Amino acid sequence: MRHAGATWLAAVKQGLGELGYTGELIKENYDFADFAAPEPRVRRILLAAFGHIPTSFESAWIGVTVGSQDAQSLRRFHALGAPQILVLDQDSVGRWKMPATGDPVLQERFPADRLLEVMRGRRDTWGREVVARAKAISFSAQPLQLDFYDAGLVPTIEATVRKKLDRLLREALARALKAHQEHVAGGADLAGLYRLVFRLLAAKLLADRGHPGQWAAGDASEVVSRVERYYYGPQPIPPAVSHPEVQRAAWRYMRSSFHLQNVSVRTLAYIYENTLVSSETRKQQSIHGTPPELAEYVVRRLPFEHLGRDERRVFEPFAGHAVFLIAALGRLREPLEPGLSDRERHDYFVRMLAGMEEEPFAIEVARLSLMLADYPNPDGWQLKQADVFAAEDFERELAQARVVLCNPPFEDFSVHDRAKYHDLRSVNQAAEILSRVLDQPPDLLAFVLPRVFRDGQAFRDLRTRLVETYGTIEITELPDRTFAHSEVETVLLLAHGRNRGVLALHCATVQRQDFPRFLTTGEPTRSSSVRMPTGEAVAMSALWRFPLGVIWNALSEYTTLGSVADVHRGIEYRLPLRAHWDELVSAAPRREFAHGLVNVEYDFEPFRTRARHYVNMDPRVMRGGAYRLPWDEPKVLANAHRLTRGPWPLFAVPDRRGLVLYQNFHGIWPTGEWPVEVLAAVLNGHVANAFIDLREEKRHNRVKTIRAVPIPRLSREGLASIANLVREYEQQREFLESEPSEEADRRCRELLAEIDTTILRAYALPPDVQAELGRHFARAPRPGPPSPRSKVSVQVPLRSEAENGPWVDRLEVIDPPGVNRLLREEPELAALVAEAADQIGKFIPGAHMSLELLADPDYGDEEQLFLGVSTILQDGEALEALRRFDQEWWVHHVRRARGLLCVDLSDE
After folding, report:
1. Residue 641 pLDDT > 70, yes or no?
2. What is the predicted pLDDT for the residue at 823?
């Protein structure tokens, strides 16, 4: 066996060489950390082939071992990251697939003497170039079909490493802080402690990767000094805590932790963003780091190949931990000729990549990350610590750059900033930096921007400049929580190609439930493309083509709601409502108070509301003149504060009681022949809700958007017919409230469907256009009377999946028969729901969950379960907890859902 094994191993090495794996891309007796082991453990594989340097679980492609192996024993190679393992035996070769979870799967077995022949025949699937299209995100229109490649493998390993590294650094920081309190007088030097732990991390990385030098030798102070000399040489550096006892406490813990040889650059970026940045620094520097997957998407979408080899100079202002530069390095590496030496390749990258960042610690992290990405080459990176808005070198860097990639701060300049900086053109930092970049427009441009960029006044002139400069512009609307520690809604702007009189505009939207898929495939939820003359694009009020464009084109000649009604927002107070609730709101009638609505969450649904409060109408407490509006006249009530994140953002209710509305609502008064019942029916309909959903941010429905809603063409007879239907529904809904029954509930829903159908028919949309509109609502039930609620019962298949699950008593099923049916039809979905609920309980202790079916046969033929999460955590904390659930668990299992399960914070 020993002789045969050596023979076959030689054949493997020859075959790998012919497939493009040469030199340092092949490692014999490769050691790697078993990240899943409870205690630090290093494993070894006979041979490993990597797609690129540096070697890590991210670049591993093929592992090779010898001897008789079974699935259970091969699990020890999971952390290697190679999607397939070749097992060489006496007479045969087994090819095993390494899945994200579970045991390896035998794909095939063939005679050992055919090994070289088989490898030569697999060039299209085993070749090194395939790595760039599979393990790196290629976002190809035609995804690879590889029988052995599980796209969830690397993310699964990465999630494990992130947790371990995060725990390691937090514990090291805690021990250093304790030693600092014991041995150093005065308050804790948090910045110095962060730097100390980071430099010790750098030493461990260099030592574990076998970089030449005694990185872990001697005491902690020697280790720190060695790292500082290596990174910075003789130049001044920001100080780390230097007390020997503090250094010793942190190093004693870190040096004995798990092996870091095959940790990826992306993991380091995550650790910077989530562990090594204090909340104070994050707030001061407006840090909302770019997810590495998004940076990868950007560099794959931009046509670097349109630039010459020596023209691809990339500049990243506000570089942070250089996530864009690291992604660009990978993009630049692929077309380089294989004969380049390490030094030649490194010198090329150093010439092509430059970054600027004010935060000194971010520069340190960026430097290490780039070194690791170009391992084993030394420092030399063009990373300048400077204030981008004041740096003298900024203009020079722009002049040299052909590619600019930027995630700027979104905040407005403070009063101090406006006094500090001269010649500011905008009050907003993102608008200001985009303006300066467009003074010397690069060939390829990518910016992360606040969503207001699409149509906000602050960006109007910049939109014009972009259109007049570039021939292709892509705008992708990203969901909230895309960026850790930030709830600001964002868009991704890509621009390239010179304008020659015609603009190619591509617009895409990524919804929350589709974001994990977008990060792995680049496929948005919806997209539209159009070519138009530059002049037409300049005249657009918004640089955006709304999805469902075929519908808005069909309705472009229709009049709008503003032609038949006045729309006004509710009353506003000079005083903060919450702080002065008892002064401004009463549960019982009082002098100078009027019956009205305050919160949309209370008893507000299409065509029906219950007024619980009385609101203060004293002019002395008012801001603005809304209190003077004719509140006692018939009108329609509509929510200004959005109730759901789905495609039904607007509820409308006819009001004949003279209710006064707080600013969470709008009042809509008819100005012509349209009855309030018809206005409400139109605003509750599919067209109005799609129109508003695609134009508004997640929290508000603005007056100007409601006024712009296209309305159907209705005769007097049509108006009367719809008004009668609405009044009949209102009567039936009251009956349902007083005497609940399945029959009354069914009749209400039938009437809702009839109203919707009548309104939709009045728009006279072609069948294909109407079908497109239907698909927009396919997975969202029509809001109406509350569905019956009950606790999970033994009839729901979840019980069998979670007899020992602590979350069962905190999961409520809405409409159990519908949920029951889908879970019985999709038994594997029940297991996934149970696992997801269990994980949510770990990430958000004390969370309550609801499970409901998001479909109605009358409004679409697709069904989906929605697992809603409610918690007592504050909004920011809840968002961050759910983001961690997404990154560390859900992203690795979302494919199992097959679009049938969505997990998000509940709107309740």
Report:
1. yes
2. 79
Query: Could you tell me the pTM of the whole model?
Result: 0.66
Q: Which amino acid is at 751?
A: L
Burial 580-595 (b: 16+ CB within 10 A, else e): eeeebbeeeeeeebbe
Does the structure show a pLDDT above 60 at 504? yes
Indicate left, alpha or beta for 47 from its phi (over 0: left) and psi (-120 to 50: alpha): beta
**DSSP string of 180-195?**
HHHHS-SS--HHHHHH
Question: In DSSP terms, which residues pair with 528 in a beta bridge?
Answer: 507
Query: Which residues, in sequence order, are bridge partners of residue 865?
Result: 853, 901
The pLDDT tens digits for 214-227 are 899 999 999 999 98
pLDDT-derived band of residue 892, with 50, 70 and 90 as boundaries?
A: low
Angle at 365 between CA 432 and CA 274, to 5 degrees: 80
Residues 6+ apart with CB under 8 A from 527: 506, 507, 508, 509, 547
The pLDDT of 755-775, averaged and rounded, is 91
| Structure token pair of residue 904 | 């998000």
Spatial separation of the C-alpha atoms in residues 566 and 572, rounded to whole Å: 18
Q: Give the pair of three-digit tokens for residue 903.
A: 């997990």
Question: What is the number of other CB atoms lying within 10 angstroms of the CB of residue 221?
Answer: 14
Annotate 678-698 with b (16+ C-beta within 10 A) or e (fewer): bbbbbbbbbbbbbbbbbbbee
- Contact between 680 and 726 under an 8 Å Cβ cutoff? The reply is yes
DSSP single-letter state for residue 235: S
Q: Are strands 353-357 and 314-317 parallel, antiparallel or unpaired?
A: parallel
Q: Which of 429, 461, 425, 465 is nearest to 445 (CA)?
A: 465
Q: Is the per-residue pLDDT at 846 higher than 90? A: no
Separation CA 851–CA 867 (nearest Å): 5
Whose CA is closest to 331, among 316, 363, 309, 347?
309
CA 257, 263, 265, 270 torsion: positive or negative? Answer: negative
> Lowest mean pLDDT: which of 263-272, 332-341, 656-665, 773-782?
263-272
Question: Residue 826, Cβ neighbours under 10 Å: how many?
Answer: 19
Q: pLDDT at residue 799 above 50?
A: no
Select from 297, 513, 515 the least CA-distant residue to 407: 297
Which residue from 13, 75, 81 is spatially nearest to 5, judged by alpha carbons? 13
Indicate the range of 198-202, 301-305, 533-537, 739-743 predicted with least confidence: 198-202
